[in-house]
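Fold in tokens:
===
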Amino acid sequence: MTDTTAQGAGTGALASPASSSDLYRAVWRWHFYAGLLVLPFMITLAVTGALYLFREELDAILHADLKRVEIRETVAKATPSAIVAAALDAYPGRAVKYISPAGDADTAEITVSADTGQRLAVYVDPYDATVLGALPDRGTVMWTVRYLHSLRYFGPTVRSVIEIVGGWSILLVGTGIYLWWPRKRGRGGVTSVRGTPKTRMFWRDTHAVTGIFVGFFIVFLAITGMPWSGNWGAKVNEWANGNNFGYPSGVRVDVPMSDTKLAEVAPTTWSLEQARIPQSTDAAPQARDMGLDRAVEIIDGLGLHRGYTIGLPSSPTGVYSASVYPDDLSQQRVVHLDRYSGKPLVDMSYADYGPLGRWLEFGINTHMGQQFGLANQLLLVVVCLAIVMLAVSAGVMWWKRRPAGSLGVPPMPADRRVFRGLLAILAIGGIIFPLVGLSLIAMLAVDLLVIRPLGTRLSAR
């Protein structure tokens, strides 16, 4: 949170007794490294995260021609089957998903695996089944922002950076709190900002004061973002979901199961990514599919929140898989219907998740700005702006402090024994988050084998 430029190597006006201690130097040095590695990513995550907080509002504006229709209260809405038929008439292929309108002014969305080989999201007026147009599946602006935020565009290897950034962000906050600690300095640089933007002191104080107020939120966002990481998140997901076909422990599944996962059929919560889809029990040649209209009737009768998604059956043993994940966690629900009898084969909600699953989903929901409505969104926007300010102030502060021709790494402590406690903390973090541990080892090797000898040679000149 603070590079403490003036405290570690700078002006006497800001020096404190602790600034010359070996422990202080060790903490400052690793705070510098954490910032060097993390801050560029944190800017990207903060900007894309701030935008994604308002994904529904922005998509409704940016894609208003596809997502919004005029409310016609006196007009009966088209049946779901007619809406799907209209989508397939305009874009021939196989219907994969039906997404019901979330409100009276919203369109229905049909996912079509087109004959051209492309997967499309087709938007249909729910009143008269007029096809308004199509986009590539998950092709809205906000889906693009989401993929940028999670680094999904760049493949699984690069996505591992999310886990590393999360771990180093926690280290950044911890070391920043130590460097910020008042040490009888008074309010300057603790709760107030001194100087003007022309001075290094101004940027140091801005960095420190902003960091201490936003540090808790950085840790919270780092921890709640970890479930999406490709390595740690995937392993914890398997453990948290239990072994009962991917459903949380306590949810009995005593019907035949397919090998298809819910995440392959429709967007789902983190806790249900591994959940497998059940199979319809009567696939005899004479058996008749009840049809989408009847499936929607049953789902509405079960009380699912509006805007639910129905994954359509694609085989004789397929099911109608309805799922909805509104802002209110208690309204989250997944229902799988036998395609012939309409019997619910699995019906589960947020209350059925295990304790870990509920806590993680609560954290994820808050992370995405959903749990507490507009207040949640506005608070996290402020946090995102503060994170950008932290990164900018750190860069300006470093630039003003660094010696010409040098990286400006904080000095090594004279007594290397102070690293023992620090390394013990780093080791614990590395055990919990293995990729973070590997990155810590790599950074330690670079510090000892490259940066330290280079600094010694420059000092000898």
Residues 22-52 form the longest helix (31 residues). The longest strand covers residues 93-99.
